Amino acid sequence: MPALNVEFTEEELVVVRALAAADGKSVKAYVHDITVREHARRVFVEGAKKFIDDHKEEFRAAFPDDAPAGNDTTAKPSSEAA
């Protein structure tokens, strides 16, 4: 299996060791898991952004009073909405 050597400052390594211990993992397992988790988070966020962009008009039509200000010229100013 491929491996990777990662360099940390002494201060960074203290933090990484503490975080790994708090998760009950070795430093190696912790660094692996956090890297994979960050990738999954980024993929999720990209998908969420695409979903919102793809369905923006549907949301706007279904919830016209909840549309963010400035994104719809037909939306009422917040002072008139109440």
TrEMBL record:
Region (Disordered): 62-82
Polar residues biased stretches: 71-82
Protein name, entry field: Uncharacterized protein
Species per Swiss-Prot/TrEMBL record: Streptomyces beihaiensis
